[in-house]
Write a structure and sequence with these properties.
alpha/beta, Rossmann fold, 6 helices, single chain, globular, five-stranded mixed β-barrel, binds hypoxanthine, 9 strands, 31% helix
Length: 273
């Protein structure tokens, strides 16, 4: 894997005149609009990046964008990879390894989720303060290369507390309503049954989705700090579990995109690394 990362990183550095971003952003569902805020210097489609998988999901483009946001240098992934697409955990998280090699210190992730917390509404913006890994595996399984990080990774602060405090202050300043909670990550691609939503709420999750956890695990292994944000696009609350469709998820996420973009842009501008 080391050779693959080095090869890909060199290839990217060649194509971007040695651009060295401090922030890595994974634009999940709901944050796609943030690309319009990035002053892009270079854009590379995944298909032109050696060793990169190609995203197969509608609503997820497939490009790496290098540019400026909130006055800082960022690399943004437009389109991420999901376990349910059939990729391995190592493939899904490969871009995070490359980000680290390019100099990224802070990873920002976004996603759409189903909300189990009964106080949540459709469209709720939730700052992720912790997660539960319900994938049947972990991206760090296999031999550990100490050059990347330790065998046993500390996960006591998966989402940096300072970042959460800052994001909440920014949200308050701009009149954006946010809550804070726990994200359960599982494979999908089925949405959950009512019994599964009930189970997830009981074990301590506020929302559920099909991404983010693998990337954050690898970011922590790589000694990066993480900030995560989720848009609740449907509810898994007893009595409120209705038919969920991908179109609906995209629509709700799109509606909240301006707020999400504002929040992340201000966050990048104000955060001290
Ligand atoms: N479950 C899992 N993933 C999701 C959901 C959900 O209800 N909504 C958006 N992504």
């Amino acid at each position: 894997m080391l050779q693959e990362i080095e090869f890909t990183t060199k290839n990217i550095l060649n194509k971007t005149n040695n651009f060295n971003p401090q922030f890595g952003i994974i634009l999940g569902t709901g944050l796609g609009g943030l690309v319009n805020e990035i002053k892009a210097h270079y854009t590379i489609p995944y298909s032109e990046i050696p060793n990169f998988p190609v995203s197969t999901v509608r609503g997820h483009g497939g490009k790496l964008i290098f540019g400026e946001l909130g006055g800082k240098k960022v690399i943004a992934m437009q389109g991420r990879f999901h376990y349910y697409e059939g990729y391995t955990m190592q493939q899904i998280t490969f871009p995070v390894r490359v980000m680290k090699a390019l100099g990224v210190k802070t990873l920002i992730v976004s996603n759409a989720s189903g909300g189990m917390n009964p106080s949540y509404e459709v469209g709720e913006i939730m700052i992720i303060n912790d997660h539960i890994n319900l994938f049947p595996t972990n991206p760090l399984i296999g031999p550990n290369d100490e050059q990347f990080g330790p065998r046993f990774v500390d996960m006591s602060e998966p989402y940096k507390k300072e970042y959460i405090t800052l994001a909440k202050a920014i949200a308050a300043e701009h009149g954006i309503k946010v809550s804070e909670g726990v994200y359960a990550g599982l494979t999908g691609p089925c949405f959950e049954t009512p019994a599964e939503y009930r189970y997830l709420w009981r074990i301590g999750a506020d929302v559920v989705g099909m991404s983010t956890v693998p990337e954050v695990i690898v970011a922590k292994h790589s000694n990066m700090n993480c900030f995560g944000i989720s848009i609740v696009t449907d509810l898994g609350v007893e009595g409120k579990v209705f038919n969920v469709s991908h179109d609906e998820v995209l629509e709700v996420a799109k509606r909240q995109e301006p707020k999400m973009s504002k929040l992340v842009k201000e966050f990048v501008n104000k955060v001290i690394l």
